[in-house]
Amino acid sequence: MQSKNNKNEKKNEVCVIGLGYVGLPLAVRCALKGYKVYGLEKDEKKNRKINFGKSPIKEKFLDDNLSRSGLKAYSDNKIIRKADIVIVCVPTPVDKNFFPDLEPIKKTAQAISENLKKGQLIVIESTINPGVCEEVIEPIFREAGYIVGKDYYLAHCPERINPGDPKWNITNIPRVIGSFNKKGLTPALKFYRSIIDAEIYPMNSIREAEAVKIVENSFRDINIAFVNELAKSFDKMGIDTKDVIKGASTKPFAFMPHWPGCGVGGHCIPVDPYYLIERAKLSGFDHEFLKIARKVNNSMPAYTVELMQDALNKVKLPLKGTNVGVLGLSYKANVDDLRETPSLKIIERLEEHEAKVLSFDPYFPKMSSVNNLEALLRKSEALILATDHNEFKEIKPEKLKKLKIKVIIDGKNCLDGEKMKKFGIIYKGIGR
Fold first, then answer.
1. Could you confirm whether 15 is annotated as catalytic?
2. What residue ranges of the chain have pLDDT lower than 50?
């Protein structure tokens, strides 16, 4: 890799496998830092867009930099052979029973082993539970006849991204790295320090690095579950949970605010705890606390529909047959990301109760049942705000009153409930 003292030193070539929300920004960043980068992605439609300089993901960093990065995407695994550094950014989902699905990462490791270049540094960025590199990935290479630390180097640098965040992105979020040994850790640290303008913290082992990301997201899941449970409790006591959290936040130490909502979505928080839960079982430990947190957060879409049902009862309307508009499909405000979104679970629950469901999301027009927000409002008798897109936060109670919308359930607690009530609209937030 190029050092500051020798500008003529040849930089390593990089292959990023998986050009999604994690891999594509990383590949672009590497290219902008002067590396020759090969993107490996099986989705040919996505590759065509990338090769034309168009991002398949709506993200400011990509909009600003993809076209000038010169990144090229390929679908043939043989491109792996060209790289000195291979970075794995494939999904690590859970199945319908919340059991970790490691097939994508197993298949990727197999593809790399079949196209290994002597001395390659392989970095896993995909979120995995402690032990996956040692117990799942390394044996695949060993079976192919390769010895870690001799024929190749294996490290784990858990991804850290925050879609839609104007401040924190691929360029400036600190990272941690662990490897099988120092021979692999040294080049991994050097590489990441060359592309990221933040601290790169070395871990003592690859297993510790695997544990870091799981801990980060389990911490958030537990705290969100706590405030979601408070929301259910305080609702029965007539206490505004949002106001209470604001009050608690005035303490300058030992408190970190988390907020209740209609469900937890995204690629990390609703998934990663299950990886730790299931792996710990193999070691003879039962994560009761994590399982309770997951149960609470998984209950929130159904709870949101219960709030709608109760609110409709007050205006003598049944949920069955009522036109209910769902505002937002994405799991997070102002991004085009459906992964684990609670919106779809809310819609599914409404349909189980035979409500007539309408939906609109400006980031997913083809998946929406109406063409625009105006059409949804005109056709709806009641609303559930499931995603706090900027467009939805600007909805005025005067307009809802004029369109004879009787009920709104604010799943993100982002609207002015008092104003809604002044116009005769039944407003209900999560814990408000």
1. no
2. 1-6
